[in-house]
Amino acid sequence: MPLSETNLLQWELDDLEVFCMGVTDVKSLMKRLSLRKMRIRSRLVLVYSTLIFLSILLISVMLTAYSRQLITGKSVDYTVGILEQMGQNIDINLQQIDIASYLIFSDEEVLRILKYGPGDEFVDRTNIEALLVNVMFSRRDIDSIHLFRNSRYWFGTSYPYAYMPYEQLKQAAAKGDGKLVWIKPDKGSGIIQAARIVRTVQMEPVGLLVMNIRESLFTSIISNQLSDINGNVFIVDGEGTAISSLDNTAAESDVDGKMLERTESEIESSGEVAGHFTERIGGEKYIVTYYQSHIIEGWKYISVIPIRELTKDVTKLLNRSILGCMIITGLFVLLSFFVSSGIVNPIKEIAYRMRRMEIQHEEPSNIQYEGQDEIAYLNRSFGGLIQRINILIEEVYEQKLLRSEQELKTLQAQINPHFLYNTLDTVNWMAITSNMPQIGEIVRSLSGIMRYSISNVDDEVSIEEELEHVRNYCAIQTIRFGERLAVTYDMEEDILDHPIPKLVMQPIVENVILHGFNGKEGRCEISIRGLSGDNAIQLEIADNGIGMDGQQLEAILEGEQERHGRQGGIGIRNVDRRLKLKYGAGYGLTIASFPMRGTTVIIRLPH
To answer: What residue ranges are annotated as transmembrane (predicted)?
Structure first.
């Protein structure tokens, strides 16, 4: 019965409903559906769209991570280089300011007036202030210069003096021991003060020099070279105080103490005056680069850049990549629904007909599908398969009837062997009664052999049962050979209960007695041993018979004994084939034989 357009439409609606469920309620979908329960089209679309989305997303994330790492590294290298150049420029300006101060306190007239006081006060003040003005105008970044003899008597380029009190300036300058000391600026003043003690040639302190430097000396250099880093730059003295910064706000408070400790530690451990590290400040990660001044001891130039600022363009790229993944996946879903229709619809129709078909009552008709692809092959194979199944059902039914009849015949056939070995038991007791033990032993052993042969229809016994069968056979042969035949047994106790295919050892022993001892003079010995290893059980049957050469041994294993006049090898070959078919190529028989030196057959079984 062909699948109607209504049924196809219903199946498409079912697929659409499944897809909508996944969009509206993911948890409910995961509980109610699995890939095995979904239609082929839905499964293909879901799996491949997920793979496409994850593949593109993974590539985007990997490229983004690489780009972020690359941009961060390049930005750090750029910042370190610019910071080092900026620090060198500031050092040069600081050095020039220090040299300018030498022009003042190295002047002999200045030292005389500071030590002894002015002679002609008007002349001396005029000369000193003219010197101070000349030095001040030598640099645009010097706001004013003041020279103190004491707290009440001073010279300057501007009046009145309205900065840090004299005593504080003197205490700060004393820390420099004659060097120029830079002092933390006042809030919002835009002035950074530098002070130094003026000494005579005999190192006698005679005054105090104060230079007021415009903070633009630092900010102009910083802004010209590092204004595009989207972070901040600090100039920090040896006490951790911010002398200046890019945005002019950090000078109002100390820089983050943890960052300064890390900077000191990096400088000490690496021995380098420039470097960088990553630090978390206020819950956000920053790239911190540093450069230590060569001019002023303890001064450091530190830039702090948020990592998010360095990688914000990369984040935008990742967001656009995710959006692109979603668009591409959506287009693939739409396209796959159209492309898969030509593949899935014929398969759906076959599956639909298989549900409704009663195999024994309806013959399949071929689906009208034009093509030479796998679906066309499936269509043709489906019809042939149903016909073959109908034939097989009839054959199985007939075989069941034949099996029932065969079981009945087998049951009837067992009556005669049972009657025979029961009769042998009677003969055994008569031999014992007549005091003829050898006849009784032969009859008992023969009875055991017949009972073993018709029992255990499953073709698998224990090693102990198989060994008992060998004993019965050897008992009959011992009576035939007399004292010339000696059979010894050495079996480990833990392998006796292990299963073994029926009639494995006895054919080998029979081959030894019939052919291995043929023409041998003297004592005939057979040794039967059983060993247990880690991965296998090994049964060994060795004799001291006439042995075989390589050609004879190959003939036995290949089943070509007749041309050598020996028929017993056929049993050995069958035993080997049975073991290999049952357990695999790694098991079976291994034969070692040499002419006039005997033969050893090893049976290898799985443990």
So the answer is: 45-66, 321-347
Q: Which of residues 217, 247, 269 is at a domain's end?
A: 217
Q: pTM of whole model > 0.85?
A: no
> Does any domain span residue 411?
no
Per-residue pLDDT band at 537 (split at 50, 70, 90) = very high
User: Are the beta carbons of 244 and 215 closer than 8 angstroms?
Assistant: yes
DSSP-assigned letters across all residues of 229-268: SSSEEEEE-TTS-EEEESSS-GGGSPPPHHHHHHHHHHHH
Amino acid in the structure at residue 343: I
- CA 511 to CA 505: how far, in whole Å? 10
Picking from 185, 217, 249, the residue at the C-terminal end of a domain is 217
pLDDT number for residue 606: 92
| CA dihedral (119, 121, 125, 127) positive or negative | negative
Q: Is residue 345 part of a domain?
A: no
335 or 563: which carries more pLDDT confidence?
335
pLDDT in tens, 382-414: 667 777 777 777 767 766 765 655 554 544 444
Give mean pLDDT, residues 438-466: 72
Tokens encoding 331: 């287009």
Buried b (16+ CB within 10 A) or exposed e, 411-420: eeeeeeeeee
E runs forming strands in 248-388: 274-281, 284-292, 300-306
Task: Tell me how far apart the alpha carbons of residues 98 and 408 are, in angstroms, rounded to a whole number.
Answer: 125
Number of Cβ within 10 Å of residue 509's Cβ equals 22
Token duo for residue 152: 């009440």
d(CA 131, CA 448): 139
CATH of the domain at 204: 3.30.450.20
CATH of the domain at 573: 3.30.565.10
Count of domains for the chain: 2
Residue 585 Cα distances to 239, 394, 589, angstroms: 84, 37, 10
Task: Compute CA distances 262 → 18, 80, 253, 288, whole Å.
Answer: 58, 16, 19, 10
For residues 46 and 63, what is the distance between their CA atoms, to the nearest angstrom? 26
